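User: Could you go from structure to sequence for me? I need the amino acid at each position, not a summary. Structure tokens:
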């Protein structure tokens, strides 16, 4: 089985390079302090349709310091004055009208085709709000696996999730100091028949997981800084995050 090393909270490290930041349209899920911290780390920043309103409204006092590199979407949510403001600042604005994909998915494709030096793509505002959109955002993680080897992370100030690819042993480095109390392993797309883990309070030993049978929620890190997960199918890793204090 191929092995992959990954630090799920690597994007929080102080001098992390190659972060691409995406802001989605879920204002209740976006903590402004955390957004500004991520903005400062990111080399490329994109807002997705109504996510542009979120940025605009969140940084009222110093709007000129927070100008994204790209705005995209089908533009059924961005407000006209918001669009006008960023247009006047020379931001690239790309219309993605296809109604078979959510705006997040289309924006991700644009970013992948644009940037070479990307180490991680972090999307803010993907949790909460509409349930269909939460699932759609997780579906985008599945789509991303076919498009790029760059990890795509859904993140907020207090939690994150990332899709672990099937048929691999994942070695998760969980020693950044930002790890919180809970974590989970969710077989979202289809059942997993063989999962083996180490480094968790409740480990699996060549066990299956599927909805209606077993999913691993309210799990916890054992605390030795490493979690290993072998899985025969894609599996969503979720964890609590403790960000930097302001
Ligand atoms: C089977 C199927 N169901 C539903 C749709 C509709 N649909 C899927 S993605 C999409 C675009 C959604 O765009 P986005 O702006 O991301 O979300 P919104 O806030 O407009 O719901 C639409 C209309 C479809 N094309 N196919
Ligand atoms: O409740 C929601 C609404 C939206 N999203 C995410 O944001 C983008 C852009 O949304 P628009 O409604 O087009 O402005 C959408 O593609 C979703 O990824 C969400 O997560 N929850």
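Assistant: Here is the amino acid at each position, in order:
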């Amino acid at each position: 089985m191929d092995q992959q090393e990954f630090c799920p909270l690597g994007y929080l490290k102080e001098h992390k390079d190659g972060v691409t930041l995406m802001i989605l349209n879920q204002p209740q899920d976006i903590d402004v302090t955390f957004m500004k911290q991520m903005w400062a780390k990111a080399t490329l920043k994109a807002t997705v349709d109504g996510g542009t309103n979120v940025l605009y409204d969140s940084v009222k006092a110093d709007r000129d310091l927070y100008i994204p590199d790209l705005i995209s979407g089908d533009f059924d949510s961005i407000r006209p004055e918001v669009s006008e403001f960023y247009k006047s600042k020379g931001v690239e604005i790309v219309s993605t009208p296809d109604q078979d994909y959510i705006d997040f998915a289309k924006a991700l494709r644009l970013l992948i085709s644009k940037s070479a030096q990307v180490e991680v793509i972090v999307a803010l505002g993907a949790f909460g709000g509409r349930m269909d959109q939460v699932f759609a955002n997780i579906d985008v993680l599945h789509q991303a696996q076919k498009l790029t080897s760059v990890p795509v992370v859904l993140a907020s100030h207090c939690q994150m999730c990332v899709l672990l690819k099937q048929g691999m042993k994942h070695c998760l480095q969980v020693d950044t100091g930002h790890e919180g109390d809970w974590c989970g392993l969710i077989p979202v797309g289809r059942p997993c028949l063989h999962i083996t883990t180490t480094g968790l309070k409740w480990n699996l030993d060549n066990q299956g997981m599927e909805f209606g049978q077993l999913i691993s929620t309210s799990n916890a890190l054992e605390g030795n800084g490493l979690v290993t997960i072998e899985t025969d199918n894609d599996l969503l890793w979720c964890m609590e995050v403790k960000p930097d204090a302001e």
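One structural detail worth keeping in mind: Helices lie at 32-41, 51-58, 80-88, 103-114, 131-147.
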